[in-house]
Design brief:
By secondary structure, the chain is α/β, with parallel strands linked by helices. Among the domains are: about 10-255, P-loop containing nucleotide triphosphate hydrolases (Rossmann fold); about 375-440, no CATH class. The protein contains 22 helices and 20 strands. Strand 9 (about 225-230) and strand 10 form a beta hairpin. The radius of gyration is 25 Å and the shape is globular. It starts with 7 loop residues before the first strand and ends in a 10-residue tail after the last helix.
């Protein structure tokens, strides 16, 4: 019998999981060593989240482990009695999930929640565990930890709440940390802070960590090894540097290619090209919101100015709360500006009565960030896409049906989708329906609000390619609102950086990325996680000692 390697902390052996008659994990095997960060990457439905929960034998209702084993320090987790498993969960293996605020109890102070985890696993008085929680808050980068410990989840930002969840995972000194899309939806700067913190603490404490994600940039920048999951199997596993340099599986190569930034469709700074006619000009735009119960005012948009030429795309980037979406909603008159001007094709649309603005609305459309929320759940896709055609006078039912099918084809959806309802569509299909709806009236200008956020690697690339093709084929002008910096380089000719309701820097995309002038822009770009490793990351990844052979 082969002696167990003492450096191996967690060992997964031919783990198979099923829900009913459907197998969702199939013969999954890997090991996790002490002081190692393993990245597991896969698209929606690959089985990543099921794997995370199977490792602690805490599957959702209906799930069962069919065969295989999971061992921690040589002891089978699946053979433990219920009491021992409860001690292990959170005590020796901690799971960090997505959406921290949903994971925290909304009616209990966050300090008390973290202290309660410590008491459950290690005992101690309320005073002692409270002090330990506050001390850990400071170590995970929470400013003014004593005051924050008394806060409720709704009083914290998303990044701060995620730090609380990380503290909750680390408080009982586990041996293994499982992070299941723990930074999904966070701003780039907050994501980097959270990942820096998590990985640093794991290194300092000699823990093993598994980062489960659909973002190859995350694993390229933080993980020692990368495992690729597809349809419930690990299809490839190797050191990060080697994987990024030469993946073995065709599927892995497709994911890597989809994750790479593509050059913008044309050079906006081409000196030989005539400057396009200005289609949209925004001058000192303002939108303030009163804070209920006080005299305070939120200056969401504070003197914003920019212009977009015919056929051009301007990316509006910045962190959550910077005012990006508010700007977009003001442009399409979903919000009435409090000051400034918006000139569209020479006309100030901010002063137009609704009746006069209605014909112009055909030419200015918006693709919303959350299509599932924006699409009427009671309407089939045909009605959702066809509704804006009411803005075009004398459109017959036959012409409307024909146009719907043209639009479905334009956004690369099959005609049968016309009879589907929003809940029957994938996230990528919902995004495409939202785009088709916006294009129904053949607009000249479209506001894309976070069109690539939280999508799988390939779906994200497909949406980027689709928007690029529409720019080329229709000559679209666009405002591209996003915090996905990789997408900006693939789509935008110009970039405007927003912070606290103001534009702090504006210029050509390549210039901004190569030579940012403002400190805030530099910090924002430093938070980008490209799949291309730095020299230090490559050396570390290639320099690891004994590793498992790749799976073929």
């Amino acid at each position: 019998m082969t002696p167990r390697d003492p450096k191996v902390l967690l060992e997964v052996d031919k783990l198979t999981v099923a829900f009913g008659d459907t197998t969702v994990l199939n013969d999954v095997s890997f090991t996790l060593r002490r002081d190692e960060v393993l990245g597991i990457v896969g698209e929606t439905g690959a089985g990543k989240s099921v794997l995370a929960r199977a490792l602690i034998d805490l599957l959702p209702e209906g799930g069962r482990i069919v065969s295989g084993d999971v061992a921690l320090d040589g002891a089978s987790i699946l053979s433990m009695n219920p009491k021992r498993k409860r001690e292990l969960r959170g005590g020796q293996i901690a799971l960090i999930g997505t959406n921290a605020k949903a994971l925290l109890d909304p009616v209990e102070k966050v300090g008390a929640q973290v202290a309660r985890v410590l008491r459950a696993h290690q005992g101690g008085s309320r005073a002692a565990t409270w002090k330990a929680a506050v001390d850990l808050f400071a170590k995970v980068g929470i400013v003014d930890p004593e005051r924050r410990a008394h806060a409720y989840p709704h009083e914290l930002s998303g990044g701060m709440a995620q730090r609380v969840v990380i503290a909750m995972a680390l408080i009982a000194h586990p041996q293994v940390v499982l992070a299941d899309d723990a930074t999904l939806g966070l701003d780039a700067t907050i994501q980097v802070q959270v990942l820096d913190l998590l990985v640093r603490r794991c290194r300092e404490l000699g823990l093993g960590a598994v980062i489960i994600t659909h973002d190859l940039g995350v694993v390229a920048n933080y993980c020692d090894r990368i495992a690729i999951m597809r349809e419930g199997r690990i299809v490839e596993m190797k050191p990060a540097g080697l994987f990024l340099k030469q993946p073995e599986e065709p599927y892995s190569g497709v994911l890597l290619d989809a994750a790479r930034a593509r050059p913008t469709p044309r050079g906006a700074a081409d000196a030989s090209a005539a400057k396009p006619k200005t289609l949209l000009e925004v001058d000192k735009l303002e939108k303030f919101f009163a804070v209920g119960g006080s005299n305070k005012v939120v200056r969401a948009v504070d003197g914003v100015s920019f212009s977009v030429g015919a056929g051009e795309t301007l990316a509006l980037v910045g962190e959550s709360g910077s005012g990006k979406t508010t700007v977009g909603q003001c442009l399409v008159r979903l919000l009435d500006p409090g000051g400034g001007r918006v000139l569209f094709d020479g006309n100030d649309i901010t002063t137009l009565p609704e009746r006069e603005f209605r014909p112009i609305r055909r030419r200015i459309q918006m693709v919303f960030q959350e299509p599932y929320v924006a699409l009427n759940p009671r309407w089939p896709v045909e009605s959702l896409i066809g509704e804006p055609l009411a803005l075009i006078p004398k459109t017959s039912a036959a012409a409307r049906a024909k146009r719907v099918r043209e639009l479905l084809d334009m956004v690369r959806l099959p005609a049968r989708i016309a009879d589907y309802y929003p809940h029957q569509l994938t996230a990528g299909e919902q995004k495409r329906v939202g785009i088709a709806r916006a294009l129904a009236t053949s607009p000249d200008f479209v506001v894309f609000d976070e069109p690539t956020t939280a999508l799988d690697i390939r779906v994200r690339a497909q949406i980027i390619d689709l928007v690029r093709d529409l720019q080329r084929d229709m000559g679209l002008s666009a405002l591209f609102i996003t915090h996905d910096l990789n997408s900006v380089r693939s789509l935008a000719h110009y970039v405007a950086v927003m912070r606290h309701g103001k534009i702090v820097e504006h210029g050509e995309t390549e210039t901004i990325f190569a030579r940012p002038a403002e400190d805030y822009t530099k910090a924002l770009l430093a938070a980008e996680l490209p799949i291309e490793q730095s020299e230090a990351q490559r050396t570390r990844a290639l320099g690891r000692t004994t590793v498992e052979p790749s799976l073929t």
